[in-house]
Amino acid sequence: MKFLSPDSKFMTAMSRLGDLVVLNFVFLLTCLPVFTVGAALTALYTVCFQMASGREGGLLRGYFRAFRANFGQATGLWLLLVAVGACVGFDSVLFYRMSGPAHYLYFPPVVLLVVLVLAGGYVFPLLSQFRNTGRQTLKNAIFLSLGYLPRSMVVALLNVFPFAVLLFDLVLFLETAFLWVFLYFSAIAYLNALLLKKIFEPYFTKEESP
Q1: Over the Cα atoms of the chain, what is R_g?
Q2: Measured between alpha carbons, how far is 181 from 178 in angstroms, rounded to an integer?
């Protein structure tokens, strides 16, 4: 049967699905210390951009090579984003619960939090594809996320979806736990790589170009 041949679209899709399941498990395992999430995201995006560009190689070898190579910078950026996000989120909740004119001071922190979420969707994809300082990576993430706002909003919504489910409906989150464990994060990274690939292409040097 043709659909069972190794080159058929069906078998290609099944192979890609299997790769994403493996990637999802490895990603979750390397996220377990929590402070390693940045390095894990960078490694995940490294492999997913390779998939999206048809440059696939050794799946696990490529993942762990990228994890080690970007560990220091990715960890620093991750901890910075978490610290700033926690401070801004705390300020927004604090002001929102106040009465009187101070109540309306919650708006600026909320705007900053939205910008942080939008830019956060670019930080680790950028880090996986370009050699830059942490400051330049953050700067590029902010400019690109605001410059391509509709696409950035899609990326942000995909990124925050499981955490929104966890926050608003714990039972639903637990009922769909198989999705988060087996596929979601790698599949979303792959979709995000497809969305961001065209944005990044004009900035690739000949050495970096897919």
Answers
A1: 19
A2: 5
Residue position matching structure tokens 């696990």: 60
- pLDDT at position 9 is 67
> Which of 68, 172, 80 lies closest to 120, judged by CA?
80
38 contacts 124 by C-beta, under 8 angstroms: yes
What is residue 5's predicted lDDT score, i.e. its pLDDT? 53
Give me the chain's average pLDDT, please.
Answer: 87
Burial of 78 (C-beta count, 10 Å sphere; 0-12/13-18/19+): buried
The distance from CA 142 to its chain's CA centroid, rounded to whole angstroms, is: 15
Q: For 14-27, what is the HEC assignment?
A: HHHHHHHHHHHHHH
Kindly state the DSSP code that residue 7 receives in the 8-state scheme.
T
Buried b (16+ CB within 10 A) or exposed e, 5-35: eeeeeeeeeeeeeebbeebbebbbebbeeee
Distance CA 118, CA 104 (A): 23
3-state secondary structure of 137: helix
Tens digits of residue pLDDT in 35-71: 999 999 999 999 999 988 877 667 889 999 999 999 9
Residue with tokens 């400019």: 143
Q: State how far the Cα of 77 lies from the Cα of 36, in Å rounded to an integer.
A: 11
Positions in the chain whose pLDDT score sits under 70: 1-12, 56-57, 205-210
pLDDT at 136: 94
pTM more than 0.70 = yes
What letter does residue 192 receive in the DSSP assignment?
A: H
